[in-house]
Amino acid sequence: MNYNQFLEEVRAAVQDRLGRDYEIRIQKIIKNNGIVLNGLIIGKTSKSIAPTIYLNSYYIHFTHGMSMQEILEDIISAYKENNDVVLGDMRELLDFSNVKDKVAFKLIQMEKNKELLKDVPYIKFLDLAVVFYLVLDEHKGGQMTALIHNSHMEPWGVGKEELYRLAEKNTPILLPPEIKTMKEIMCDILKEHLEELKMEEMVDDLLDFDSQKPSLYVLSNKKQINGAGCILYDGCLKDFADSQNSDIVILPSSTHEVILVPDGGKLDYGELRKMVREINESEVPEEDVLSNRIYKYSRYDCRISLIK
Q1: What is the DSSP letter of 125?
Q2: Tens-digit pLDDT profile for residues 4-30
Q3: What pairing do the DSSP bridges indicate for beta strands 142-147 and 52-54?
Q4: What does the pLDDT read at residue 250?
Q5: Could you please report the per-residue DSSP string of 289-306?
Q6: φ, ψ (nearest 5 deg) of residue 193
Q7: What whole-number percentage of the chain has pLDDT above 70?
Q8: Distance (Å, rounded) from C-alpha 241 to C-alpha 173?
């Protein structure tokens, strides 16, 4: 069964399972960095919102032996889980006063998102773009968000400068920043796995903590979603740089977090740039890659610049 046949068979099976009260369709959706995914749109006649379930990964599982019945059950389960989100009357979203406190920003790469940026309001930031979205609701599966498009702007009567002003205020409240050492990140990951084995008391021994001051820090938000945008939070980098008494090199780990390295004047920028590029190529999902460039926050003028 080829990919297009798979898509149609899944659509028909979900339609048969849910019945005539639902409209099931396949739609191509452009994601970050130009990635095009096939979404299964599950719409109910009595609701204005239709959850999207992406089918690309399901086809990979199918070619590796996952049955169509297992895929169907997983899709229905995912739909029911995400369909519990309560948004009220969608007509309320047409009135900007009802959504202005939900406007947030995130950072994406300019070069790989040229097509997307034709359709959304954005503000250029070095080799990146600040784009805007609505944080509509939260549920056990994560956050429900909606990217703001140019088509929203005229009905709302706002420009991108107003969106940025609101997002600059809202995003740190909706998604508070958090800085952890690399050791703390490793500890959290290790502890989570050891707790499953009831061996959490071994964390310190396995990580062999010492009193040496760590030199790598991870900046994200508490949700670890679109956390690279935290570098734009008012005072976030300034406070950290002041605590380190140093300029800060920023390594774009992904769209969800960045690595902060205090710059004592001995860093090899070329090696750091090479490391970021290699990690992006081998470890980071293409959709989550932010940039192959590296940046520097200067305490002198409180500005972020590209390291040439």
Answers
A1: E
A2: 999 999 989 889 988 888 888 898 888
A3: unpaired
A4: 96
A5: ---S--EEEETTTTEEEE
A6: -70, -40
A7: 81
A8: 21
Task: Look up residue 113 and give its two tokens.
Answer: 């998102």
In angstroms, the CA 232 to CA 257 distance is 12
pLDDT higher at 91 or 261:
261
| Cα distance between residue 201 and residue 220, in whole Å | 27
Query: What is the number of alpha carbons within 13 Å of residue 251 lying toward its C-beta?
Result: 24
DSSP 285: -
- State the distance between the two ends of the chain, measured CA to CA, in whole angstroms: 49
User: What CA–CA distance (Å, rounded) separates 82 from 136?
Assistant: 13
DSSP state of 21: T
Q: What is the per-residue pLDDT for 179?
A: 93
233: Cβ contacts below 8 Å, ≥ 6 apart: 171, 172, 177
- Over 179-235, what HEC string results? EEEHHHHHHHHHHHHHHHCCCHHHHHHHHCCCCCCCCCEEEEECCCCCHHHHHHCCC
Q: Read off the DSSP letter of residue 1.
A: -
Give the number of other CB atoms < 10 A from CB of residue 218: 19
CA distances from 101 to 29, 86, 170, 273 (A): 26, 17, 6, 37
Q: What is the pTM of this model?
A: 0.80
Chain-centroid distance of CA 183 in Å reads 23
Q: Please check whether residue 269 is in contact with residue 251, taking contact to mean a CB–CB distance below 8 angstroms.
A: no
Q: Where are the beta strands (DSSP E) in the chain?
A: 22-30, 36-44, 52-54, 103-109, 122-125, 128-139, 142-147, 177-181, 217-221, 247-254, 257-263, 295-298, 303-306
**Helix (H, G, I), strand (E, B), or coil: what is residue 89?**
coil
